[in-house]
Amino acid sequence: MKSVLRIVLGLAALVFVLPVAAQDGDVPNKETLILYVAPDMVDCTGVIPQTCLQIRFSPEGEWQRHPENIRNFEHVPGFNYALLVEKIQRNPIAADRASFFYQLISVLEAAPATEDSSYYDLFTPSGEFSLVHIAAETQVCQDGFTPELDCLLLTIGDAEPVPINPARITNFAYVPGSAYTLVVERENLTAGNVADVPSFIYQLIHIVSETTAGV
User: Fold this and answer.
1) Rounded to two decimals, what is the model's pTM?
2) What pLDDT score was predicted for residue 37?
């Protein structure tokens, strides 16, 4: 594991969701995202000259200037951040503001920046966070030398679901009949050269949602 400061706010952050959303009226649309935030703010132009956060949506993505604060998040200069946020649509939309805002759910990671560090160094090839979906049903599959397992069906983004050994998501206890959205961190395995055995595992960082079938 990297020697960094990890802060998981969990439920403590969630208590802010309803009061803040209520200030903007009914909020019909929400999307959960992972944002990477640069250690330094930059000058930018909005209604007035100001400083902006630099954000991106993947460790190797292009930086974008974000003129608004991320609600419930305090940016400390000199730290690289990985954040779990909600993108919430405003209703009504103000003429001088974006149609959405970001609201912090959890700080996944805060790492001091150095002169030779970057998000690419910090989060790839291992240490990359992903939002994954776990289906309520399982599927029989094979993992290495184990011929038959009740495997989880894991989906990342728009990809097709793939079966995965439950043991490959550490610190996660699957309840049959429940579907999940999780934040996981991919970690490469040093002894991952055995045929038919995955060279990485996922570590559970945060449970975004859990839904029981039929409820």
Assistant:
1) 0.71
2) 94
